[in-house]
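Service request form, structural biology core

Requester: graduate student, group of Dr. S.
Request type: structure prediction, single chain
Budget code: on file
Notes: please return the result as structure tokens.

Sequence provided:
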Amino acid sequence: MSMHLNPGMQQQAFRVGHEQTPIFVIDDFMLDTAAPILEAAGMQYRDRNHQQSFYPGVRAPVSKDYGMTVLTHAAKVLYQVFGVPRDLRMNPKNGSYSLLTQPENRLQLLQCIPHYDNTSCFSFAIIHYLNPGQFGGTGFYRHKPSGFENINDNRKPRYLETAQQHLDQCGGPEQKYITDSTDHFELIKHVDYRPNRLVIYPSTLLHSAYIENPEHDVNADPTTGRLTANFFVEFTPTK
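Core staff response, request fulfilled:
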């Protein structure tokens, strides 16, 4: 099966929050998602929690062909739209098919609040929504006590300090997937799940899977679950 981009893809850039962080959304990204969906259906999935990942589900590696298809186009977007300096080179860190499998009554505290993936200013997350169906998308948030929307190296100590203070004073979050605003985090943007939609955003931006219907979305079957492909890249100086 072929893995070709759709020349008629619909691309949109917008900025969110007080910090005006860019997010890039591409609809109808590939001509046909049958190939990655079929590939994902035949993979062996593993729980990543033992590897210090708090993703509430299972993952399996994507193929080189699919990864290159996604990342080649994403690199153009990141240079042109996100302003990554041309003298930096993109280094893929991870590319995985992902499925939510953790029911809400088994979520840990850190799985009930937004998170950031990396504190580097030139690191980015790319998510490709794959399976057809009505699933939860992705929410982006502001941390109310600190006012931060992005967590970089300089902000990380202050963010962790104020987050812990809030937990100590107000208690932990409700044991559920976060969706709308809470007393701790403010929702600043919700990007809907749409099959064959690609979303690109900085890894420093606080975000979470936006799961309103966990009874439907928490599903370990790659043919019927909330199947996404998640990529993480970082730009570093060329040697």
